[in-house]
Amino acid sequence: MSVNKEELFDKVVNLSKRRGFVFQSAEIYGGFRSTYDYGPVGVLLLRNVKEQWWRSMVQFRQDVVGLDAAILSPPSIWEASGHLTNFTDPLVDCRECGSRFRQDKLEDPNNCPTCGSKASFTEARQFNLMFKTNAGPVIDSAAEVYLRPETAQGMFTNFTNVLNTSRKKPPFGIAQIGKSFRNEITPGNFVFRTREFEQMEMEYFVPPGDSDKWFEYWCKERMDWYLNLGMKADSLRLRIHDSDELSHYSRATSDIEFSFPWGWDELEGIANRTDYDLNRHAQASGNKLEYNDSGTGERYVPHVIEPAAGATRTAMAFLMDAYEEEEVNGEVRNVLKLDHRLSPYKVAVLPLSKKDELIEPSKEVLNLVQPHWMCDYDQTQAIGRRYRRQDEIGTPYCVTIDFETLEDKAVTVRERDSMHQDRVSINELVDYLSSRLVP
Ligand code: GAP
C-alpha cells in the first residue's frame, strides 16, 4: 500500500511522538518553537546515522581524520570567515498582521501566507543568522561570543595543528560531527529546519589544480552513501547550484536533495570552497595556513572540497523514506523498512508469555545478544501487538522465547520485512544474527 505524500508528513510526525523518536522540546511548558528532543528510539536512530557517516568518512579511510572543535567561538573567526557580513537571509514583515518571513522562501512574494494581504510586505532587509551570547560574568562587547552556525570553521582554524600531528598531506580531510546554531527566520517542517541542529561535515584539502576532480569524486561518493544505506534511488537527486545561488565562499556547489512530502529539498551540500577560508584565516590571524612539502620544497594553500550534511535532517529523511503501510490479514501493518544499520534496535527479545518459567530463559537470551547489538526487551501485551510495535520502530529481528524453548533450547526469529520465521538453536543464535546484522 503506497502512502500518499501529503499524508506521509503527518504520519511520520505522529509516529515520532507516539513511539519515542522525537518530542517537542519543553512540551510541558507549552513547547519551545523549533526545538526538538530525541526520545529513546530517536536518539538511537540519530546515533546510527552519525556512526554510519563516521565509518564511511573516517574509519574506512586513511586520508581523513576526525576533530571535535568548540561550539563557542570569538568574533574574529566569523569576521574572517565572512559570516558576520554575509551569513544573512532576506527578512520581510507583513504591514497588516506583523508576521515575519524569509523572502526567498515565500511561495508568492506579494501575498502574506498568514493574513492573505496583497503587497503588504516591507522592503527586504538582511538578517544575520548568528546567535550571539556573552562569555564570563561581565556583559560587555569585549565578552561577545558566537555559537557556531557551521562546524566547518573549526577545521580550518585547526588546519596546521592537524597537519603537524596527523602526518597527512593533501589530498586529506578533516571530519567533524556536532551541533550548529542558526537563528532561522522561518524554522519549520518538523526537524527539517530548526535553530539548533547537528551537522556532519568534512573539509577535504587538495592541491589547487585538482579541485574539480575531487569535487566530482565527492558528489558521487556522497550520493552512494545514501543509496548504500537503502535510500530509494528515486527519492534522491543531485542538483547543481546556479551561480546566483552560491554561498559567498563557493566556486561550485551541488546539493543532494531528497523528495520530501513538500517537494525536493536539500539534505547535503557539496561545495568547492577554493582557498577562500584558509586565506581569510591566514590574513586575519597572521599565521600561514599552507602546505609545505619538505621533500620537494613545494608550498601552496590547498583548495577545499566540502561535503556538508545535516545529521538531524538526514535522520528524518531516512524515516520518511522507510515508512510503509502493508495489509496483513485484513489489517494495516505500519513498518519502518530501515536498513538494519540504522534501525534503533537490531533485536527485540520477547517472551511469549509473562509466566515465570519463560522469563528466566528470556533474560538469558537477552544477556547473550545484548553485548553485540542494541536490544529491546518487552514482555507486555499479546505477541502480535509486540511484533507490530517493533515493526513500527524498524527492529529487523524479533526473537521469541516460547514453551517449546524449555524443551528444544531453540527460539523463533522473525524477520521484519518478510515476516518469515526461523527456529534457531540458542547456541547458534549469535552466529545466525551476526551473519545478517553486518555493521
Ligand atoms: N559548512 C557548510 C554548510 O554549513 P549548509 O548547506 O548551510 O552548508 C549543511 O548546511 C547542511 O546542514 C544542510 O544541507 C542541512 O542538511 C543542514 N542544515 C543547515 N541548516 C539547517 C537547519 N536550520 N536545520 C537543520 N539542518 C540544517
Roughly what percent helix?
25-40%
Mean pLDDT: 95
Number of helices: 13
Class derived from helix and strand content: alpha+beta
| Spatial strand arrangement across the major sheet | 3-10-11-17-14-13-12
Query: pLDDT below 50 for ≥5 consecutive residues: which ranges?
Result: none
Largest sheet: 7 strands, mixed
> What's the total number of strands?
24
Radius of gyration: 25 Å
**Portion in beta strands:** 25-35%
**Distance N to C terminus:** 30 Å
Shape: globular
Bound molecules: glycyl-adenosine-5'-phosphate
Keywords:
439 residues, alpha+beta, 5-stranded mixed beta sheet, 24 strands, globular, binds glycyl-adenosine-5'-phosphate
Task: Provide a compact summary of the structure.
By secondary structure, this protein is α+β, with helices and mostly antiparallel strands.
